[in-house]
Design goal:
alpha/beta; TIM Barrel; Rossmann fold; 9-stranded parallel sheet; globular
Amino acid sequence: MKRYPPAMPEMQHMVHGSDYNPEQWLTWKETVWKEDMRLAKLAGLNSLTVGVFSWAMLEPSEGHFTFEWLDEVMDMLAENGMKAVLATPSAARPAWLAKKYPEVLRTGQDRVRNLFGGRHNHCMSSPVYREKVRIINTKLAERYRDHPALGMWHISNEINGECHCERCQQRFRAWLKEKYGTLDALNQAWWSTFWSHRYTEWEQIESPAWNGEWGTHGLNIDWHRFSTWQHMDFVARELEPLRQYTPGTPCTTNFMASYEDLDYVEFAKLFDVVSWDTYPTWHKEAVIDTAYDNGMCHDLMRSLKGKPFFQMESCPTSTNWQSVSKLKKPGMLFAQSMQAIAHGGEGSLYFQIRQSRGASEKFHGAVIDHYGGNDTRVFKEVSKVGATLKELKELAGTTMSSPVAMIYDWDSQWAMEDSQGPRNKGLHYLEAMLKFYRGFRKQGVNVDVIDMTCDLDNYKVLALPMVYMFKEGFAENVRAFVENGGVLVTSYWSGIADDTDRCYLEGTPHGLMDVLGIRSTEIDGLYDWEENSFVPVPGNELGMDKTYTCKYLCDLVELRGARTLMTYGSDFYEGYSCLTVNEYGEGKAWYVAADADKEFYGDFLEKVLKDSGVSCGIKEEIPDALEITVRENGNAKYYIYQNFGTEAVSIPAPEGEVSWIYGNGNDKLEVYGLAVAKVIV
């Protein structure tokens, strides 16, 4: 396991930073800016993200550039030993640009052009907008390419949305022509003979709309794919001057967890470093459940490039946009920041350092609130994060080795949202993912969250929760994985359709029926108030001895060699198999036929891991609310313990000779506390 170089050059330690909008305080720069620097250093910040929404202050009128204030900010950062994550301002254009060139504004699904306002209200196809972005980015790159403060480029901000203007329609048709070649091929892929929606001219094709075509599922999923490509094409052009003038400066953008509208697997290929904005709803549910949810997102981001990432934004206290703006309880800011590091992150950053005085985000939490002092609870906790990251500098450049992989697939998610059966009230895809993830992570086992194109050779266990759509060749790769000794755990509603959302013929799960030893025959969609149960078969080989609840979807399977461990407890399919296992080649394949409760996955996957010989290296039982992750560098393993429970817990020590680089393993770990053990390997 290699050690990675710093994600931000010249920074040999963890990044601790924050968004900074000094242009909002330009009138008071002599006092406010100096105080910002003093407090930032006091809080242990070593990086500030600047320029994200600064276009109107950098180019107040067309062709008139005013970089002097940014020069001062960059110089100030350098003088104080800080690095700038310097942003391109394309996420929000100035009013003059929209007024003079209305074509740059986005058109909605209803084909009505937007008015000026908001963010990401731009057409990605617009030649004017592309050129204006190229000009401002070139100016930034030329001006700051040799500046000592420049540490990283931040491209736009939380990229999202779509445009339905005529120019985008033409680009969509061109994209389809390149993909399919002929209309006959497109019609076949989309099954468009249905409802007499067959296309005879390319110009007949329109993007999906509530007042137009919405029932051609192949069209819908290709529009999602095109929208990802459209954004990528725009960003690729945006990156060109930065790569030209600052080839050694890494580029990132801030992703948004499992944001549904863009395929981050593809998008991540454009960037040197993955970063994402982390805004969990802490204290809404059991904290450990939220921690697992957030941890899965961290692991997804880390897995996109298989190397360290950044938590680019997190809120120091409460947001302004969630339905209820809940305060982070004492210790939670610290715990969330450390969780990013635990899951392979290289830094923890905030939005923002100084709270805005007016407009939309005036009540969004910040390191420095409206009061402006350093004696607040939040400021003290941010300072603790800064001090801790310095103590944990040994972790910089280390990463994670995972014996378990889970498949997360944007295409499947898009297609399932369209599927019109077996439940139009929700198939609960992400919830199913989380149940699997939680079951593995309760055992302290690292998990990669990967896509169908990834190499499977380095994993011992592969989980396919509701992988509805199989890409070409995927079933063959999974088959080889099991045949060569891998352990497969898959679920209902997997291998149902191909990559154009046409149902597979000749049985499902496609290509894996013999591997799993079953065939799916029917699937029952349950009303929200309905439930069934998993009943253990006496003497089953895993020793499953509890009855569990299942809801939403119940798959009825025909056994073709598999053995039954649990059966349904009621309805006309009472006694049908709902948990099976089958040997195939040197490996094993488990099938979960229904949406069981999280307790089932906790018990079942614990037994599967033991049966597979997979462990995190801790023999003692792990307390329920204790999250354990392991980072390593080839010479040492670092066991990172976090308590997301309601009371202090004992720390189960790993095997080997242990030294503690943070905390004390002999003490109980307090609520939201952190401990880090080092084991030489």
